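2024-03-11 09:14:02 DEBUG pipeline.ingest accepted 1 chain
2024-03-11 09:14:02 DEBUG pipeline.ingest length=62
2024-03-11 09:14:03 DEBUG pipeline.predict start
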Amino acid sequence: MLQIRLTELEKRGFLDAANLAGVPLSMWVRERLRLAAIRELESAGQKIPFVAPVAMGDGSDG
C-alpha cells in the first residue's frame, strides 16, 4: 500500500483521466507510476525490480 497526498484538483484530474481510460483510479495511478519508474530506471542503467528479465535465445531455430 502507498499513501500519497494530493490536492483536490490533482485528485480530480487523475480521476477524470482514469475515467477516460475506463479503469479504476488505483489502476490508473499504478500503471503510470510503473511506466515512470521503468523510464527512469532504464535511463540510469538500473534493473527494474518488478519486471522479469527476458531470456534471449541464440537466434538458431533448432
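2024-03-11 09:14:41 DEBUG pipeline.report Residues 8-43 form one domain.
2024-03-11 09:14:41 DEBUG pipeline.predict end
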